[in-house]
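Hello Y.,

Per our agreement to keep a running log of every chain we model this quarter, I'm adding this entry. I've kept the format consistent with earlier entries: sequence first, then predicted structure.
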Amino acid sequence: MKLWSVVAIVVLVKVFDVAALHRNPFDVIRGCKQYDKVGSYDAALTYFPTTNLLHVGHTENSEYFKIGILGPNDGHIRYGDSLFPYDKYVIEIVLGGWGNTKSVARHQYRKASNENSNNQLVEAQTPNLLSLFQPTMFVLEVFHNGTVQVSIDGQDHPFLSFNDSKRTPANYMAFTKWDKDMVYFYDCPLEDANVLYNSLLLNCTVV
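Predicted structure for the entry above:
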């Protein structure tokens, strides 16, 4: 009888091991809101106030957001201080652009006529950052001193970091696309968001 008990325990352990190894990659978006009616790059985007979000992280020097992107290339996040940011600057972050090879951040100024001009702030090589088959989860952290960092959720070091001289607040946010359909997940629970290293780093450099 004891032998069968041992065998049963071993089988259960193996089953749980297999389940852990085959975790559903979409589990990472549990609790997120889904944004799938994504407007084209030059569309009149619908910005939403971040004060209405349930899951915004705060440190003494920053606030941060957990965002997921599902799509082959060119995830676009824009944020600024206005619900209708025309004749104003916003920050635009392009993730997995240029055929999913690199990411950039820039100041974007969009006129009331919808013409826009971009001033690039940083560029990083990020091959195969996005996926059509599973969401990539990011942490976007906006510091009060103008520093902005983007990291992959669960990683200590940001892959994109820049200084925004205009100190654009993330009061309103929108998502857009370039040439492929995209799905965004936002207002995600922050239990797994790993920004402690970044916050400690910036605490030493706040001016």
